[in-house]
Amino acid sequence: MTAYEEFAGREILPPQEGPDPVNVPMIRHWAEAMGDRNPIYLDEDAARATGRPGIVAPASMIQAWTMRGYAPAPDGGGTGGASGAEELYALLEKDGYTSVVATDSEFEFHRELVVGDRVSVREVVESISPEKSTALGAGRFVTTVRTYTDQDGEVVAVQRWRLLWFRPKASPSSEQAPKASRPRPVINRDNAFWFEAARAHRLVIQRCAGCGTLRHPPGPCCPHCGSFEWDAAEASGRGQVYSFVVNHHPRHPAFDYPLIVAVVELEEGTRLVTDLVGVAPGEVEIGMPVVLDWLDADPGLSLPVFRPQPGVAS
Amino acid sequence: MNGRTYEEVAVGEELPALPIPLTRTLIVATAIASRDYQDVHHDPGLAAERGSKDIFMNILTTNGLVDRYVTEWAGPAAVVTAIKIRLGVPNYPGDTMTLTGTVTAKHDDDRRVEIAVRGENGLGAHVTGTVAVRLPAKDVR
């Protein structure tokens, strides 16, 4: 059994009471920020008119009542201070999983919270996944069950909660360590429009003004009808992997490796050579649906890249 | 403020779409209103160090917006009994997320209605999930 597997079933956060009881000022801040104008959160009469005893808190706000708030403690969960949680966070950090994002939250609400309620939460680990390769970097999914109770110990809500702890990849647009510049594209009168559009994060396709045929890479003359007249059409940014290679060697200091170089076939029918990002080399497949993203390689150069269509991989 | 009764709602009904402009102020204000002070929700430099291109919306806010979206449609008498969401691509500043929803089930025993919810931004699906609300009966209104 690995150190991670041993956490399954373990309470990492003993019951902890939120610092403030359910109160109108915090509800007001929440409702204002969310743009939520439901009157039952702020207007006593409106709440009574719906059969409630008085003002209730938004259901989704329950987690906020037990958040740790602003504290100079290590990053991690929203709540903290418990030894089990700290032990888990230390283990994750030791293995390089220094960043965290929430990926799933499944709430079941047993009753609405009213002003004056005191909410506590306890958290038990359900499972910790083996290391998975994700768009953000390699990481582990930590699934816990958070049980919210009131001042009488009655359960008011249960939340299944999943965090991805991961090793961050180098930022695509980081302004930190100055990196070598990418090799410059050769820009001429035929293709300048395409790179100018890319600088504005627009992916365009050259279109023959004579017969309407799309073509890429750009050129002076339509190979279909011979016309020299052309304009540019906006691409939808959706496509699929037509072919790809994974470049391991030789390396150029401007690139991150392994570097996936692909031919992407756009929905419009033309193909372009581009990089695939947000996917591990072993997960790329021919025909895989991809969507456009932008690489701001350096101040003078923006290039289209593609990433897997969201919702397809986990 | 009008609301929906259980009887008025039919499986397959679509909720009106709600576009939400993702301003930097919205992302920061909602993080703070949910007492979430993690740097990735307000500090662009630290967010970049952690591998993100910019600050991004926290999940508590996604829950709050999905809650607001469904209860705006259902009305003040509706009681939220479940919110189950999965996050996809991040909500970055400058984008717009459009929420859409469809009624997928009705449970007569407790007048509970389930709504499948989806929030799309320029990068794809930010959130997919289900919200369940208990609606008033016709005569209670």
Number of strands of chain A: 14
CATH homologous superfamily annotation of the largest domain in chain A: Hotdog Thioesterase
Largest sheet of chain B: 5 strands, antiparallel
Strand content of the residues of chain A, in percent? 25-35%
Largest sheet of chain A: 6 strands, antiparallel
Q: Going across the major beta sheet of chain B, what is the strand order?
A: 1-3-4-5-2
3D structure, described in words:
The complex is a heterodimer of chains A (314) and B (141). By secondary structure, chain A is mainly β. Chain A folds into two domains: 5-22 and 57-166, Thiol Ester Dehydrase, Chain A; 192-308, OB fold (Dihydrolipoamide Acetyltransferase, E2P), CATH 2.40.50.840. Helices cover 12% and strands 34% of the residues of chain A. In chain A, a hairpin with a 5-residue loop joins strand 5 and strand 6. Mean pLDDT of chain A is 90; it is low at 74-81 and 172-176. By secondary structure, chain B is α+β, with helices and mostly antiparallel strands. In chain B, strands 1-3-4-5-2 form a five-stranded antiparallel sheet, covered by helices on one side. Chain B is elongated. The mean pLDDT of chain B is 94. Chains A and B meet through helix 1, helix 2 and strand 2 of A and helix 1, helix 3, strand 2 and strand 5 of B. Strand 2 of chain A pairs antiparallel with strand 2 of chain B.
Strand and helix map with partners:
The complex is a heterodimer of chains A (314) and B (141).
Chain A: E1 11-17, H1 24-34, H2 44-49, H3 83-94, E2 99-109, E3 120-128, E4 132-133, E5 138-149, E6 155-166, H4 192-199, E7 204-208, E8 214-215, E9 230-234, E10 238-247, E11 259-266, E12 271-276, E13 289-298, E14 301-308
Parallel strand pairs in A: 12-14
Antiparallel strand pairs in A: 1-3, 2-6, 3-5, 4-5, 5-6, 7-8, 7-9, 10-11, 10-13, 11-12, 13-14
Chain B: E1 14-21, H1 24-33, H2 44-49, H3 59-74, E2 79-87, E3 96-107, E4 112-121, E5 124-134
Antiparallel strand pairs in B: 1-3, 2-5, 3-4, 4-5
